[in-house]
């Protein structure tokens, strides 16, 4: 089973307006509300692949209840730690070709929540083969919290796939408990290694991936958008090319890519199959309007068009 | 007891941003979520006056549950008809001195909800002395729905105070079941009588209030903002003047004015006391940042400054 972790989920509200009128009342009848948070997208991606998955993290209040109801509707298994404090909303206003977002910080939690969640998490680890961690921490949580999760997972020899950024990622990379896989984009990689990278030059990418701070991370997948990806798998380097696709909504594609990586590791697939699966899942998501959705009927068509080249 | 009716309540979310950046991500830590809807403000106003009050209407889903929790916190009694469909959110973005609002239409309900609510409403009428109806109807409800509510109230001789607008108000005024009181603003009055009014001229106002469509409405209070109000109480006309006040947040002042009118009728006060109480409550609300809040400690100070002059 794969355990996915979403520490600060949300109810995402999307409003479609012809025009957003500032300093006035905008009436909207086209409203969508969904359970959001990067880790929940990962969960959906794994679920589409028919691999057993359990979502955990922290939810609270009536917003948390809505998240549970939405996951029930999608037949997604979950076991959250439940607090008294309301989970957050994230608003996306779609208007005149724009997407204006308002992201709530979410509830401020305390040390008691930290401790209670760790106890909750430990109980879930018995039947878990892979863990994914995605997104940011709730207010009030220590920046090294993901290190704690990885340390506990290491006691059970469970590899952790970490998709985070900023201080949470940097702190984890400096700790003695390393994730098994990270999936930084170009900006995040620059922040980690503190130097410029030419993403069109494989030698520049290899040099970056040889940086000390990335030692002891077995798998690193750098997402390059329409240019595919570049990966270091143990000591081998791979350029991954993808076909040109009709991008409808790229939101969540990185999360679905992570879902593909987790599924592949869960199924003990080869490096080549893993990278092809992950890129195919990401593309399938980008071709759909709905965030976190993939049409698996198109899987084989696009899978065959992903090319992997080892760089020696 | 006063029964307040809010057919389409909401969870109001207020975001305070230094700047709203269009087509980008705006992160916000200053979020307020409250139970909203004009009728719930009326309920709060009555509650501040220590008169027994019960809120009803239709709520649903986790948003409806949040509304109940908020009313519990404010010690407000309620007995809603509960549907499966989620109640709505209304968003107010406060930015650079602007207030940009996004108002959801709310759930579309069906004939079964109409029937079920009417049954629910009938059961509540036994111990009710006054009813207030505020705001708009849910999608799917017939435009003459408030006529049904007034008709059922008339079987118990319960007067109904109606604060609505548009077709819902016009349809009610054309029906044989009239409200006991309406509280139109200048625009709504113009829409009702289909002619221009000079609100600075009492004769113009009297002429408007003698319009056929307003026959059989015992009490009509026209709110004139900082200029107070003009009222027809049976066949007497009153100019109501208020002192200059420091307006902090006028949202909800009309609702709190209606609360004052309902309280006064409940307590069988004189016309003069009724108008003074109502205007005082509205002013107290406008002087507070929090919508639907009044500081009753200031009541007597402002009550004494309201002047009522009968126009012969």
Describe the protein in words.
Two copies of one chain form a homodimer. With about 300 residues, the first copy, chain A, is of the alpha/beta class. Chain A has a single domain, classed as 3-Layer(aba) Sandwich (UDP-N-acetylmuramoyl-L-alanine:D-glutamate ligase), CATH 3.40.1190.20. Chain A has ten helices and 16 strands. The first copy, chain A, has helices at about 40-50, 60-75, 110-125, 145-155, 165-175, 185-195, 200-210, 255-265, 270-285, 300-305, and strands at about 1-5, 10-15, 25-30, 30-35, 55-60, 75-80, 80-85, 90-95, 100-105, 130-135, 160-165, 180, 220-225, 230-235, 235-240, 305-310. In chain A, the strands form two sheets. In chain A, strands 1, 5, 6, 7, 10, 11, 12, 13, 14, 15 and 16 form an eleven-stranded mixed sheet that branches. A four-stranded mixed sheet of chain A has the order 4-2-8-9. In chain A, helix 2 links the parallel strand 5 and strand 6. The first copy, chain A, is globular and about 60 Å long. Chain A starts with a strand and ends with a strand. The mean pLDDT of chain A is about 95. Strand 3 of chain A pairs parallel with strand 9 (about 100-105) of chain B, so a sheet runs across the interface. Chains A, B: Belongs to the carbohydrate kinase PfkB family. Chains A, B: One of its GO terms (biological process) is carbohydrate catabolic process.
């Amino acid at each position: 089973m794969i355990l996915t972790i979403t520490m600060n989920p949300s109810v995402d509200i999307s409003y479609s307006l012809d025009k957003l009128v500032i300093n006035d009342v905008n009436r909207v009848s086209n409203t969508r509300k969904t359970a959001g948070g990067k880790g929940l997208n990962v969960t959906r991606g794994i679920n589409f692949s028919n691999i057993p998955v359990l979502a955990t993290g922290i939810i609270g209040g009536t917003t948390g209840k809505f998240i549970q109801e939405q996951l029930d509707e999608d037949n997604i298994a979950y076991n959250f730690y439940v607090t008294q404090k309301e989970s957050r909303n994230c608003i996306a206003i779609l208007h005149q070709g724009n997407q204006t977002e308002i992201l709530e910080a979410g509830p401020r939690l305390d040390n008691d929540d930290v401790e209670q969640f760790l106890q909750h998490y430990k109980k879930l680890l018995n039947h878990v083969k892979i863990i994914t961690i995605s997104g940011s921490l709730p207010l009030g949580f220590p920046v090294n919290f993901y290190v704690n999760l990885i340390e506990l997972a290491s006691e059970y020899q469970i590899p952790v796939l970490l998709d985070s950024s900023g201080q949470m990622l940097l702190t984890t990379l400096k700790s003695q408990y390393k994730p098994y896989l990270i999936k930084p984009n170009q900006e995040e990689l620059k922040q980690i290694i503190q130097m410029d990278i030419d993403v069109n030059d494989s030698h520049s990418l290899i040099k970056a991936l040889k940086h000390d701070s990335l030692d002891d991370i077995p798998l690193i997948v750098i997402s390059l958008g329409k240019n595919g990806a570049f990966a270091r798998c143990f000591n081998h380097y791979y350029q991954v090319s993808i076909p040109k696709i009709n991008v409808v909504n790229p939101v969540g594609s990185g999360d679905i890519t992570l879902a593909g990586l987790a599924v592949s590791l869960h199924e003990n697939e080869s490096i080549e199959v893993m990278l092809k699966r992950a890129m195919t899942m990401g593309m399938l998501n980008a071709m759909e309007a709905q965030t976190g959705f993939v049409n698996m009927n198109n899987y084989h068509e696009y899978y065959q068009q992903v090319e992997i080249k080892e760089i020696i």
